[in-house]
Amino acid sequence: MLESEIKKYPDIKIIYSHFGGWGIPKALEIIDDALTRFPNKKDIDAIYAHCDGMALGAVRALKGAGRLEDVLVIGIDGNPIDLVSVLTVKCQQLCTKVLKLLGFIP
After folding, report:
1. CA distance 14 to 22
2. Domains of the chain: which residue ranges?
3. For 73, phi and psi rounded to 5 degrees?
């Protein structure tokens, strides 16, 4: 479904897609691999993770590679522990369906 929606926006291209295992370790491994495959800072503009834990793994990989400031990271879920962790390491953006329920935004 994501791919069909992305086709509506020709300027957006999916260059790498993998199952992240719903957690930090696998996502960290996958993003490390993506950063190796796409070493130029302009190659990767954003990372979309389908849970906050995978977003945190992406953030850690980007931070370790010195590329966190160059890449927008988006995660969803609103898991309080992962959310605080992601915000603590200065994730640039976190989209979530339950931020209001958790009281993080009015």
Report:
1. 20
2. 45-106
3. -115, 130
